[in-house]
């Protein structure tokens, strides 16, 4: 089986990090709640926290782990129960981002051809009307990447490289164009004058960085497919975090150059409207290419990660064993199809429900980070690695507390907490059933 080169591994990492949120959050959340100064500080602090956590991932990569990454690591050193917790939460984080990005494609299409997909009204979920046209586009996108992944990891990696290259080039070009065209006096008045760092506003951004940067941990899922050293892959993970942080900052800054916080918050897609208004159709098309690339990279990257994870869980009988089976060419056919089917099913719920589920991603990612850092603290021999594990574990718990404490400025919404409780309950039931099956199998 052909393996992934450095460029392809880096593209998978960066493509998973820079997704739909980097283009939508500036208008829908960042500028209105935290402005430019506090968002920038929050993104920087959150990124530094994730980089500290990544040091425990580097220790993990030096162990003899299999596909499944964090799941395999915890299974080896802490047993099946803890491994299931890690796998279950990580699966939630990975899987939910596939339909999130897939349901963003109709938004891209709608900006080019306004209202063209608003046909075949199906129903309204949580105030969000669901149309057959939008669902159809989302399903086609998922099926496209399913087909691509069924051709093999190498083909998927090549496509990811092209997608990410287009993404980064277009983001930089659009930012530079806006920098020359925008009214800098209005920008200073809206976001610089009389503005100062505010801890509550900064924490709102810091709390969601596990969701924003979850793609960096694709490396452990790819250990058996890489044609590069694990040390180099770890450095790539850090580099992808820094570039991802830069892209989030640039896109937030670009949106701020166009509108004040209230005006941006009132729009469906403030960044797109601002670029269209200031740079015209050429600049807007470049932004659409960047967004389309980000969404495609997110779907492909998280489809790769989620299939690697659940196939590993299947081989360990923690999920049904048939999920982990491979073809003669080493392709995880059953896992790829399973992830695609669930993602297609989720597309029928509409973006509002999908967004509630995605809100839980940060919590699921933080649980995974905590376990990796805790285990590194337990088994590492060097004091510096133990210290990194301890600090990483504390940071991970801090992320979780920011999300679940009701009085926190970054607390999960009511629907998101409900879905999180349901996911935990389903996980408990599923683990008990699989444990009983294992016990019966051992007795026979």
Detailed description of the structure:
With 444 residues, the chain is mostly helical. 76% of the residues lie in helices and 2% in strands. A hairpin with a 2-residue loop joins β1 and β2. It is globular, with a radius of gyration of 21 Å. The two termini are 37 Å apart. The mean pLDDT is 85.
- The largest beta-sheet arranges its strands as 1-2
Provide the residue-averaged pLDDT: 85
| Overall body shape | globular
Helix/strand structural class: mainly alpha
> What's the count of strands?
2
Please report the distance between the alpha carbons of the first and last residues: 37 Å
Radius of gyration: 21 Å
Helix content: over 70%
Poorly predicted ranges = none
Number of helical segments? 19
Main beta-sheet annotation: 2 strands, antiparallel
- Binned strand content: under 5%
Write the layout of secondary structure elements.
Blueprint: H1 6-17, H2 20-34, H3 37-61, H4 70-78, H5 80-102, H6 105-112, E1 121-125, E2 128-131, H7 132-150, H8 153-181, H9 184-191, H10 199-207, H11 209-212, H12 230-258, H13 261-265, H14 270-315, H15 333-347, H16 351-359, H17 361-379, H18 383-404, H19 414-443
Antiparallel strand pairs: 1-2
Helix pairs in contact: 1-8, 1-12, 1-14, 2-12, 2-14, 3-10, 3-12, 3-17, 3-18, 4-5, 4-17, 5-14, 5-15, 5-16, 5-17, 6-14, 7-14, 7-15, 8-12, 8-14, 10-18, 12-14, 14-15, 16-19, 17-18
Brief account:
The protein has 444 residues and is an all-alpha fold.
Properties at a glance:
444 residues, mainly alpha, two-stranded antiparallel ribbon, 19 helices, 2% strand, globular
């Amino acid at each position: 089986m052909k393996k992934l080169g450095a460029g392809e591994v880096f593209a998978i990492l960066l493509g998973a990090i820079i997704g739909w949120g980097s283009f939508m959050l500036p208008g829908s959340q960042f500028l209105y709640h935290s402005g430019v100064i506090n968002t920038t500080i929050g993104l920087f602090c959150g990124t530094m926290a994730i980089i500290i956590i990544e040091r425990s991932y580097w220790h993990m990569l030096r162990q003899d782990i299999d596909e499944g990454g964090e799941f395999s690591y915890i299974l080896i050193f802490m047993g099946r129960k803890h491994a299931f917790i890690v796998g279950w939460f990580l699966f939630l984080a990975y899987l939910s981002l596939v339909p999130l990005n897939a349901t963003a494609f109709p938004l891209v299409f709608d900006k080019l051809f306004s209202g063209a997909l608003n046909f075949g009204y199906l129903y309204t979920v949580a105030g969000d009307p669901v149309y057959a046209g939008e669902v159809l586009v989302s399903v086609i996108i998922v099926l496209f990447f399913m087909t691509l992944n069924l051709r093999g990891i190498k083909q998927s990696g090549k496509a990811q490289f092209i997608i990410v290259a287009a993404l980064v080039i277009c983001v930089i070009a659009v930012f530079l164009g806006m920098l020359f065209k925008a009214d800098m006096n209005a920008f200073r008045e809206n976001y610089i004058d009389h503005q100062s760092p505010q801890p509550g506003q900064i924490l709102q951004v810091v709390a969601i960085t596990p969701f924003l940067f979850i793609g960096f941990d694709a490396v452990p899922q790819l250990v058996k497919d890489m044609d590069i050293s694990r040390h180099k892959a770890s450095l790539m993970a850090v580099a992808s975090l820094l570039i991802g942080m830069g892209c989030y900052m640039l896109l937030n800054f670009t949106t701020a150059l166009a509108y004040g916080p209230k005006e941006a918050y009132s729009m469906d897609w403030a960044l797109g409207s601002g670029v269209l208004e200031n740079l015209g159709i050429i600049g807007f098309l470049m932004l659409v290419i960047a967004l389309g690339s980000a969404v495609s990279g997110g779907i492909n990257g998280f489809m790769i990660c989620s299939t690697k994870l659940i196939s590993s869980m299947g081989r360990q009988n923690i999920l049904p064993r048939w999920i982990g089976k491979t073809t003669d060419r080493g392709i995880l056919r059953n896992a790829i199809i399973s992830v695609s089917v669930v993602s297609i099913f989720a597309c029928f719920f509409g973006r509002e429900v999908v967004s509630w589920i995605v809100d839980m991603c940060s919590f699921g990612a933080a649980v995974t980070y905590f376990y990796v850092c805790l285990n590194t603290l337990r088994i590492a021999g060097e004091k510096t690695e133990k210290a990194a594990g301890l600090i990483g574990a504390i940071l991970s718990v801090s992320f979780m507390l920011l999300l679940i404490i009701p009085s926190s400025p970054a607390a999960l919404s009511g629907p998101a907490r409900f879905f999180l409780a349901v996911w935990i309950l389903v996980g408990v039931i599923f683990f008990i059933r699989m444990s009983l099956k294992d016990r019966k199998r051992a007795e026979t």
